[in-house]
């Protein structure tokens, strides 16, 4: 068995492991436990949602009620983003790592290739999906990718959406990778809970990274919490305003959370 062994029946205790990160519920757990949860649910063919939470997701949840509801109702919210992992460590989870979407996807693909677990790819452009599937099949011999779908930019009609649900369920997929970006992918997964009989994981830019469309940051930047800076340098026109706004709002909310309790204590 590999290091990340599947522990049958090993599901997270949401009551014990969920912490509030600036009002957003995030699970405190390691990468191995996250992988175990995914495959425990997948082997039971349960309809579950797994979200990755970074600074952008926290700020979006604080400003968007629907996104907050999607985060709150998710079966697993993993800390993707160094500041989110840091806040969990500050709450007593000393060894809390960052669990990034690309890393989680890659390790799950390795496990799926060992077990023959059927996977489906949803999101991205047709070209990205083609390159992504080729990359995964090249890396993991015997990987069982049973289908993929690149949705149009416009909303699907009810009939089109029902056809997509039927296609995914009939494919036999146990894991559905969703690469639509935040907050669209979280909304899509919430809308399809109990309709798609698989574990749905929203991994955002992981499709672009593994397809080779976007170069990922060096390891030292990932470990230092600077992957966002690498992405900013690659696509400043699209990401500059996003990072400026979300990072500023996150820092402001963080300062309020850290300072206000102390002020209330002194005032009392």
Notes on the protein architecture:
- The chain crosses the membrane at residues 240-260.
- Keywords: Glycosyltransferase, Membrane, Transferase, Transmembrane, Transmembrane helix.
- With 268 residues, this protein is of the alpha/beta class.
- It has one domain: Rossmann fold, CATH 3.40.50.
- The protein is built from 13 helices and eight strands.
- The strands form two sheets. It has a six-stranded parallel sheet with strand order 4-3-8-7-5-6, sandwiched between helices. The chain has a two-stranded antiparallel ribbon with strand order 1-2.
- The protein is globular and about 55 Å long.
- The termini are far apart.
Question: Can you lay out the helices and strands and say which pair or pack?
Answer:
Elements: H1 14-17, E1 18-21, E2 24-27, H2 31-43, E3 48-53, H3 55-63, H4 65-73, E4 76-79, H5 82-90, H6 101-115, E5 118-123, H7 126-139, E6 144-149, H8 158-171, E7 175-179, H9 184-191, E8 199-202, H10 206-211, H11 219-223, H12 227-234, H13 236-267
Helix pairs in contact: 2-6, 3-4, 3-13, 4-9, 12-13
């Amino acid at each position: 068995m590999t290091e990340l062994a599947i522990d049958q029946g090993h599901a997270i205790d949401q009551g014990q492991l969920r912490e509030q990160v600036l009002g957003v519920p995030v699970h405190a757990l390691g990468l191995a436990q996250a992988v175990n949860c995914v495959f425990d649910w997948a082997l039971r063919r349960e309809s579950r949602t797994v979200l990755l939470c970074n600074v952008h997701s926290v700020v979006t949840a604080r400003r968007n009620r629907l996104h907050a509801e999607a985060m709150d109702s998710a079966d697993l919210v993993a800390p993707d983003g160094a500041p989110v992992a840091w806040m969990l460590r500050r709450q007593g989870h000393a060894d809390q790592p960052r669990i990034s979407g690309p890393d989680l996807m890659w390790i799950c693909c390795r496990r799926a290739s060992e077990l023959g677990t059927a996977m489906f790819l949803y999101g991205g452009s047709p070209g990205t999906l083609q390159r992504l599937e080729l990359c995964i099949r090249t890396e993991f011999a015997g990987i069982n990718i049973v289908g993929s779908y690149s949705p149009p930019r416009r909303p699907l009609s009810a009939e089109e959406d029902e056809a997509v649900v039927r296609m995914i369920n009939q494919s036999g997929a146990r894991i559905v990778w969703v690469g639509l970006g935040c907050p669209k992918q979280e909304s899509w997964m919430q809308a399809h809970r109990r309709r798609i009989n698989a574990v749905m994981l929203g991994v955002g830019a992981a499709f672009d990274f593994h397809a080779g469309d976007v170069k990922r940051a060096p390891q030292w930047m990932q470990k230092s919490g600077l992957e966002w800076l690498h992405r900013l340098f690659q696509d400043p026109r699209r990401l500059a305003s996003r990072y400026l706004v979300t990072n500023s709002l996150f820092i402001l909310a963080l300062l309020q959370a850290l300072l206000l309790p102390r002020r209330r204590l002194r005032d009392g």
